[in-house]
Amino acid sequence: xxxxxxxxxxxxxxxxxxxxxxxxxxxxxxxxxxxxxxxxxxxxxxxxxxxxxxxxxxxxxxxxxxxxxxxxxxxxxxxxxxxxxxxxxxxxxxxxxxxxxxxxxxxxxxxxxxxxxxxxxxxxxxxxxxxxxxxxxxxxxxxxxxxxxxxxxxxxxxxxxxxxxxxxxxxxxxxxxxxxxxxxxxxxxxxxxxxxxxxxxxxxxxxxxxxxxxxxxxxxxxxxxxxxxxxxxxxxxxxxxxxxxxxxxxxxxxxxxxxxxxxxxxxxxxxxxxxxxxxxxxxxxxxxxxxxxxxxxxxxxxxxxxxxxxxxxxxxxxxxxxxxxxxxxxxxxxxxxxxxxxxxxxxxxxxxxxxxxxxxxxxxxxxxxxxxxxxxxxxxxxxxxxxxxxxxxxxxxxxxxxxxxxxxxxxxxxxxxxxxxxxxxxxxxxxxxxxxxxxxxxxxxxxxxx
Length: 450
What we know:
16 helices
């Protein structure tokens, strides 16, 4: 499956799918999963024009479009000027740099590699020129795994020879197991490859046991260093005010450590990892206020309007999860049906935050906009039942946060009745504030009214 240069497919979706596949395999008794990360030498500069045109022909591309693309790729040259001389070379490979059509042509070129490996029983995922081959194996049968790895790499090399590309020594292998596997050396057609215990893919550092401890440590350390560099430059060199710097922190810096949080967030809830993130957030809040270190954190958080680490983490995960759920292809919905730790954690947040993740029924999509069906006059103040007309609907909303939990709800009355005809109660996460609970209650009441 190609996720790069494809509409509604992001790095977050690619990582979500990859982690779901790994966890789904590890759920099987005695199973591990080997991941081969292939690296193509030169990548986009090696896309062979003849192979691209052949692939388009096989996919029954219309003749007029095929001729247009052939003309687009034909008679291209590269010229090098040096010391009052020059050299010109005809190009039969590469996709034109900066051209809008080039990403599409790359996907056409590499598609046969992805589909042929899938047909041979391997799961393959790609993002642009980054290719991953997933091979399930029995943990006590390493010799059989060696054979499967040979088969996968030999098939890739065979494809490369036919398409005039080669794979370099950056190719790596990582073994995923519930317990840390020993480092193993596999002899392949690309040479001897020693397995790794960590591997970075699309901005996320995976480790063999899927703890994501190293990813969280690296992210927080990098942002901590960046934070102090920015503080020195922004506050002292540029003389930016604390208010402006606080805005930069909340909108540009704080979201950075939560990149791809929908993937590793279920591990960040552990005490040790949460403490690393808290240290970063505390440092950011103190830098923003520039108050003495003796100032209590509770006051600093109120001044900077930064929520607690746990709430901030959940908010960032939910925002990213909601984006995945909103994509029209609905691939995330299928992944959430798997019995994996990622799916379990994501579904609990979906339930807590009431994300509507089921596909929208066709009849709802075809329903006219409410403004065309109703003429609703809404008043935001209420004096007394005596002033209410029989046709009026009165809705009382409430949201609150107590030590034992948080919730929201609303009760609806008809103008000529003293008993409510509708009452809704919603349980919210314990960390929800009074303000957030009130907003949920009002939002639900408005949706019900329309």
